[in-house]
Amino acid sequence: MTPLYFISSMNNELPVSQVEKLARTLFLWKLDVHEQKERVYEMRRWNEALVTNMLPEHVARHFLGSKKRDEELYSQSYDEIGVMFASIPNFSDFYTEESINNGGIECLRFLNEIISDFDGVSRGSEFCQFITYKVMF
């Protein structure tokens, strides 16, 4: 009877150890999936912040709001529109972080003055619904 009991207990132990091994494997996979989900969530937050900083709010909502096909473009029709591009050539040569200009702060202050003056002019009554978007590289 003892050999039969030994064989019977081995048959019961084998599946238990397999179940335990499977449970451990599944637990490790679950941890890995959880970490991957956290990374995806963090990347999505960064992407959303990037899109909302680069695009107007209503355009960002259009692209972030629902799943869009890659080929789907955003467009809107206006009766009258004007687009202006401005640049300050060689600003990077002008910008220095030296003690004479307070570690570069005076250069940035000058750039801010130019942008503020432009924004001030564009807020005049002759510019209805004037929107400025600034992208600096």
UniProtKB/TrEMBL annotation:
Please state every residue range assigned to the domain named Guanylate cyclase.
74-124
Give the signal sequence positions.
none
- Record GO biological process: adenylate cyclase-activating G protein-coupled receptor signaling pathway; cAMP biosynthetic process; intracellular signal transduction
Main subcellular localisation:
membrane
Q: Which cofactor does it need?
A: Mn(2+)
Question: What are its GO cellular component terms?
Answer: plasma membrane
Q: How is this protein positioned relative to the membrane?
A: Multi-pass membrane protein
Its EC number is: 4.6.1.1
Name of protein: adenylate cyclase
Protein's organism: Chiloscyllium punctatum
